[in-house]
Amino acid sequence: MGWGSAYSIFNTVADALIEAEASDEVKERALTKVIARLQEDDWDTELDSLQSYRDDDAIVRAFAACDIVWPD
Q1: Is the whole model's pTM more than 0.85, yes or no?
Q2: Structural domain boundaries of the chain?
Q3: What residues are paired with 3 via a beta bridge?
């Protein structure tokens, strides 16, 4: 059984970066690390979070760097 509550953790961090008007580089670098760490703890709702940020290229790239892509 995976860790579904990580959705809330990830989205809170992503929203904070967006609200702080972080650059795309900062969002991508920071969130790649967050995603990788959450995956180590068996995060199983990655696609739920990715769906929330599909319009943000930097966040999409962070997910892709961790082998998470939106299914076609």
Answers
A1: yes
A2: 6-65
A3: 43
